[in-house]
Design brief:
The complex is a heterodimer of chains A (322) and B (310).
Chain A lengths: L1 H27 L7 H4 L6 H10 L6 H13 L13 H36 L4 H15 L2 H15 L17 H35 L2 H8 L4 H38 L5 H11 L2 H29 L12
Helix pairs in contact in A: 1-12, 5-6, 5-8, 5-10, 5-12, 6-8, 7-8, 7-10, 8-10, 9-10, 10-11, 10-12, 11-12
Chain B lengths: L2 H4 L14 H10 L2 H18 L1 H4 L31 H37 L1 H16 L2 H14 L11 H9 L3 H15 L2 H8 L4 H9 L4 H24 L11 H4 L12 H28 L1 H5 L4
Helix pairs in contact in B: 2-14, 3-5, 3-14, 5-6, 5-8, 5-9, 5-12, 5-14, 7-8, 9-12, 10-11, 12-14
The chains are: A mainly alpha (322), B mainly alpha (310).
């Protein structure tokens, strides 16, 4: 068990290093960068330019620069943004919380919608409720998430005027939690409804798989009520595959957050990444990709762990490689 | 249960007239009314997009600055945009690029995914484990973020094949980050097929690995591939539209449903139809493809035919 966990952890670390190599390679191939500011400047002579290049270590081969960069990253020096000149870590710290607030809330709302509806769909298979929910899930799966956001703004912000269509707080007003929640309604709806569509289908099929199992019959025959059978024996088993899904959907969720933050002017990591990628702010861009990758790998690792906790039948390390 | 049982359906259909797999597929597929509706709607859209010049009197880029922001009317079915161009016309032409990018990128992910899946499933060992590591790296990368980074680069390139408005490079980039599911699927099916008697027989008579893979294993793992292609097409269209919405996908002058939406947020109060129609087209097309994919899965799954759960 412990050996398996260590091996899995090292694998994750190796994946992260591989990703960092790719990202660094991409970033160093980006034309311009920090020297852009000096190229057009008539006060900078050719000698100054060469001296600056040497000072920033740009004359050295990419592998050497990669190793030095990796060393700095590990020791907590992520460099300065080309755009704002502020330390990258400070920029990230300002935004990461907002993204986690948005994504976390959206994830909770997603599960609150998807799990009950998926279970109802499965228990009433082929009923009208199931048919309607299935159609809605198909629609949700086919919606371009950014377009859904535009529609939400069009209807609830422009026409009805119920909720604000951008930002985290009302400008000029003192901060209040209510104001924040009011601003979160539309972005969270955008992110959660589209995600919930997929989860609901998954929950439904997981529940359908469980319903036919022998232990469900056993539970019934020992006199448990239908609700007890479905919730304690059915739902608990059906939730296990959902954990894996959750881990594998994390990268998609980050993508959804990028659209949500861009459309609703939400000051999070996704919007930061998009704005800076367009401007070629490579230190910030690299940091964002590394952090998102690390979170993804961590999520997959935790899903593996959660598996053993939720399902004692699974013994890690003894699984078939299938 | 796999396709190979389908080639000998007599065993499962002892009491019924034997039917060819193609016939079973067709019967099951046409019994699904949603799939029929989806197929009809999708065909109509594809035809309309192909024959766009016959359906609209306006040219794709024809501006009319006196007719800016006209709401939908008899003359302009979907209204006009900020330069007075007919939105219906542009939506039709945009469909060409959107559907082509979708198709091309699925083709790329198909080739990469099937190759990697077949090779790692058939050869196993270190080939399998190293290709598995590569797949895992691609799965752990935040896809949209890397796509954004790569498309930012594409915009900066000055090569003749990367001029504004070209769709090839975008399609390839999208496809290169969408093959992982396909590879895993094909690998799993190949692992199963490898142990079958007909593969052993082919090996026994001296067939080369390439021949076994292409003529014996590939046809038998076709069903999951077909389903994955249809779902991949839907995903690719969504990805392209998203990137183009962000201004990073296909560039003007070529309109796509995604880049038509990109500036519309500013006009939500004054001209909401600009944001409505191109998005509606993406939604309808992707919905149809998803329904078709679902019907394909049901119709191709031999388990549902035999009525046994695996």
């Amino acid at each position: 068990m412990l050996e398996y966990l260590i091996r899995r952890f090292l694998q994750g670390l190796l994946t992260l290093v591989a990703i960092s190599v790719i990202v660094f390679g991409l970033a160093s191939a980006y034309p311009g960068g920090i020297m852009n500011a000096y190229e057009e400047n008539p006060d900078v002579t050719a000698e100054d330019y060469a001296r600056l290049r040497a000072k920033y270590g740009l004359d050295e081969p990419v592998p050497v620069r990669y190793v030095r960069w990796l060393g700095n990253v590990v020791t907590g020096d992520w460099g300065n943004s080309f755009v704002s000149r502020r330390p990258v870590l400070q920029e990230i710290r300002d935004r990461l919380g907002n993204t986690i607030l948005l994504m976390g809330t959206a994830l909770v709302v997603t599960l609150l919608i998807a799990v009950p509806l998926g279970v109802i769909s499965a228990l009433r298979q082929y009923s009208i409720v199931d048919t309607v929910l299935t159609a809605l899930a198909f629609a949700g799966n086919s919606l371009p998430v950014f377009w859904f956001g535009l529609l939400l703004i069009m209807v609830f912000s422009v026409w009805l005027g119920w909720f604000p269509g951008s930002g985290m707080t009302t400008l000029g007003k003192p901060f209040s939690v209510l104001d924040l929640i009011w601003h979160m309604v539309l972005p969270v709806t955008m992110l959660a409804l589209v995600t919930a569509a997929g989860y609901m289908r998954y929950m439904r099929s997981a529940m359908l798989d469980v319903i036919g199992q022998d232990y469900m019959r056993t539970a019934r025959s020992k006199g448990l009520t239908e609700t007890q059978v479905n919730l304690r024996h059915g739902l608990r088993n059906a939730l296990i595959p959902l954990v894996t899904l959750l881990a594998f959907e994390i990268p998609l969720l980050f993508g959804g957050a990028l659209y949500t933050e861009t459309i609703f002017a939400w000051p999070g990591m996704g919007r930061l990444f998009y704005e800076r990628a367009v401007k070629g702010d490579m230190p910030v861009v690299m940091a964002c990709v590394i952090i998102f990758s690390a979170l993804t790998i961590l999520a997959m690792f935790l899903a593996d762990l959660a598996y053993t906790v939720l399902d004692p039948r699974i013994q890690l390390g003894k699984r078939k490689a299938a | 249960m796999t396709n190979s049982t389908l080639t000998l359906p007599g065993a499962s259909f002892l009491h019924t007239r034997p039917q060819s797999p193609a016939r079973i597929f067709w019967r099951r597929f046409t019994a699904n009314w949603r799939a029929i509706v989806a197929a009809i709607v999708l065909s109509l859209i594809i035809l309309a997009v192909l024959f766009a010049p016959l359906l609209t009197p306006y040219a794709r880029d024809a501006q009319n600055l006196r007719n800016r922001f006209e709401p939908p009317s008899a003359a302009h079915w979907m209204g006009t945009d900020d330069l007075g161009r007919d939105l219906f016309t542009r939506v039709l032409y945009a469909g060409r690029a959107s559907l082509t990018v979708g198709g091309l990128s699925v083709l790329v992910s198909l080739v990469v995914g099937v190759t990697i899946g077949l090779v790692s499933g058939y050869f196993g060992g270190w080939v399998d484990s190293s290709l598995g590591r590569v797949t895992e790296i691609f799965l752990s990368v935040p896809r949209l973020f890397v796509l954004i980074l790569l498309t930012v680069y594409l915009r900066l390139l000055d090569a003749p094949w990367a001029q504004p408005g070209t769709i090839g490079p975008i399609a390839v980039v999208i496809g290169l980050f969408a093959w992982m599911g396909m590879a895993r699927l094909v690998r799993a099916s190949t692992l199963e097929m490898r142990e079958r008697e007909f593969v052993t027989a082919a090996y026994g008579v001296g067939a080369s690995s390439g021949r076994i893979l292409l003529t014996h294993i590939l046809p038998n793992v076709a069903s999951p591939i077909i389903v994955a292609v249809s779902l991949g097409l839907a995903a690719a269209i969504l990805t392209e539209s998203g990137l183009s919405y962000l201004g990073l996908g296909v560039q003007l002058p070529t309109p796509t449903w995604g880049n038509m939406l990109s500036q519309t947020q500013t006009y939500l109060t004054t001209a909401p139809w600009l944001a409505l129609f191109p998005g509606l087209m993406i939604f309808i097309v992707v919905l149809c493809i998803n329904y078709l994919g679902d019907a394909l899965r049901d119709a191709l799954d031999p388990r549902t035919i035999v009525g046994k759960k695996g």
